[in-house]
Write a structure and sequence with these properties.
Elements: H1 2-24, H2 27-65
Length: 66
Amino acid sequence: MADKAKGKMEQAKGKAKEVVGKATGNERLKAEGKTDQVKGKTREVADKAAEQARGVKDSLRDRRQH
């Protein structure tokens, strides 16, 4: 769950950088912002996949015990 929150924060930080980059004409900052957003989304998706995998693992373990 912590990675999901970090992902959301990274996306927000990236969006802010992108907006500032656009407003100031700073292409580098704008690009960094977009990169941060992609990294954040990747982290969030990876965390969701890990949560689902844990759920499947727990489900299979529960079936074996009964």
